[in-house]
Amino acid sequence: MTATTGRAGRREWIGLAVLLLPTLVLAMDMGVLFFAVPFISTTLAPSGTQQLWIMDVYSFLLAGLLITMGSLGDRIGRRRLLMIGTAGFIGASLLAARADTAGQLIAARALLGAAGATVMPSTLALIRNMFHDPKQRQIALGAWGGVLTAGATLGPVAGGLLLDHFWWGSVFLVAVPVMALVLLTAPVLLPEYRSTARTGRFDLPGAALSMAAILPLVYGVKTLAVDGWSPLPALAVPAGLLLAAAFVRRQRTAADPLIDLGLFRIRTFSGAISVNTIAMFAMMGFSLFTSQYLQLVKGMSPLTASLWSLVPSVGVGVAVGTSSALAGKVRPAALMGGGFLVGAAGFALMTQVGAHSPLALVLVAAGVLAAGTVGTMTMTAEMVVSAAPAEQAGAASATSETAVELGSSLGIALLGAAGAAVYRHQLDGALPVGVDGEAARAAQDTLGGAVTVAGHLPGRIGTDLLETARAAFTDGLHVAAVVGLVFALGAALLAYRLMRHLPAAAPAPEAEAEAAAEAVTV
Q1: What's the pLDDT score for residue 181?
Q2: Residue 6 to residue 131: CA distance in whole angstroms
Q3: Is the dihedral of CA 398, 399, 401, 405 positive or negative?
């Protein structure tokens, strides 16, 4: 179907509501597992590395396949791809809920990521195709971004509510009825769109390289940080970088590449992607620390911890409202740079959090951090979608979401791995007398393992182990906060440099896209 021009009507707005449902589920799926980590540690006994894989293999598979699926949706139809991914997500959710081992759960999470990769590009690309009026599109994209933020906030709460009454696998089942509703309503309420300009052969080598470049790089970084030096992960890092370089070269030389690298010559497009990547690195990388701190250090139940985790969203609401109010009056570079400076202040506060710190300090620090990073992201979605030509909406959206997912995944992996490495180092040789053998290995792997072991130890030994493990965890939290602080300060400078060409009331980004396209073809 060929896109039409003009203002959107009732069908498009109802269709938007359908598109927001899978967006909500995918955003929730990032955080719904946070409070289930202690239960998974007890039931499936994953190693420290397996625990990190359980948390972020979903995002890495999603990130690795987004560009491929975005380009595929441009060719076979964005609604069709959305429905395929929705059906796959239902099946993978059922498999994850019934996993009996850590390996099975990692595999099910990987399938969830692959299914999610077929859904996400279609939601944003269809909005780009359904809403041609700039003001209507801005409202639709604002709703999309708001639901994305709400899902990330509600995910831990939904997880806490379910874990208070059911087994840990129930956190995956919440997606099933929502995705089933999308599967039933999409053929009726969503129009089909495909690009008539992309008629060449699908770039299978490029698709393989886009996936192959991510996994070895991430595996190497995670394993080296958690387990120390060993040959295989040390070789995986340069192998991933070489594959990434091969992917870029392939996209430059292929007759019909997955993504037109000329899009990155559009400063608005490349700048918005860079800002989003770093913002997600900072925010998602630290969300896992906050949830574990409330539950395992402060000893809260999943429901209590998830409800307290809503408090920082107050700061997010203030930041989003402030950004929207200032959008037409202050240059985007100043707003984004200022947002990252606020996020840096949140990281600085996190370095002061200890095992016995008042709860208010943790919540204020998390609120300031989230307010700064989310405040910057609210301004970038419309920039990315509008800057790309309509026929490349799927690939452009996928590229943006790949960067976002990669940023969030690397945040969890790198900040999580840094915290895990410090935790293990601090416990090495510091375990109380009487904690040895299998119990010592479980306690050194994760804080959840230490809490479980302490619950089976008599009197003072269990208490001493808890104190030592919680202190080691907060030491790891401090190191991760310092890393995040450095990234946030660097991001403030980067955002200012990349976006300083935009005035406070920016002209329509399509004009910039057309100019860049002409420059590419000359």
Answers
A1: 92
A2: 8
A3: positive
**Which ranges constitute the DSSP H helices of 98-133?**
102-130
DSSP 506: P
Work out the pLDDT band at 381, boundaries 50, 70, 90. Answer: low
Per-residue CA distances from 209 to 110, 214, 216, 336 (Å): 18, 9, 12, 33
Residues 289, 269: Cα–Cα separation, whole Å: 31
CB 447 within 8 A of CB 470: yes
Q: How many helices (H) and strands (E) does the chain have?
A: 22, 0
- Per-residue pLDDT tens over the stretch 38-53: 788 778 877 777 777 7
Q: How many CB atoms lie within 10 A of CB 485?
A: 21
Please measure the distance between the N-terminal and C-terminal CA atoms of the chain and give it in whole angstroms.
31
Q: What b/e readout covers 443-473, taking b as 16+ CB neighbours within 10 angstroms? A: bbbbbbbbbbbbeebeeebbebbbebbbbbb
HEC profile for 223-264? HHHHHCCCHHHHHHHHHHHHHHHHHHHHHHHCCCCCCCHHHH
Q: What are phi and psi of 264, to 5 degrees?
A: -75, -10
**Rg, C-alpha atoms of the chain:** 23
SS (H, E, C) 412-437: HHHHHHHHHHHHHHHHCCCCCCCCCH
Give the C-alpha separation, 365 to 289, whole Å.
Answer: 12
- What CA–CA distance (Å, rounded) separates 219 from 489? 27
Q: How confident is the model at residue 230 (pLDDT cuts 50, 70, 90)?
A: confident
Q: Read off the tokens for 231.
A: 């040959």
Six token digits for residue 192: 């089909």
230-261 burial by CB neighbour count: b if 16+ within 10 A, else e? eeebeebbebbeebbeebeebbeeeeebbbbe
> Which tokens is 407 given?
């940023």
Amino acid (1-letter code) at residue 476: G
Measured between alpha carbons, how far is 351 from 370 in angstroms, rounded to an integer? 16
Q: How far apart are alpha carbons 150 and 518 in whole angstroms?
A: 39
- The maximal CA–CA distance of the chain, rounded, in angstroms, is 77
* 3-state DSSP assignment of residue 22: helix
Gap between the Cα atoms of 373 and 436, Å rounded: 42
Sequence-separated (6 or more) residues with CB below 8 Å from residue 68: 117, 206, 207, 210, 211, 258, 398
Q: CATH classification of 11-202+256-521, choosing from 3.40.50.720, 1.20.1250.20, 3.30.390.30, 1.10.275.10?
A: 1.20.1250.20
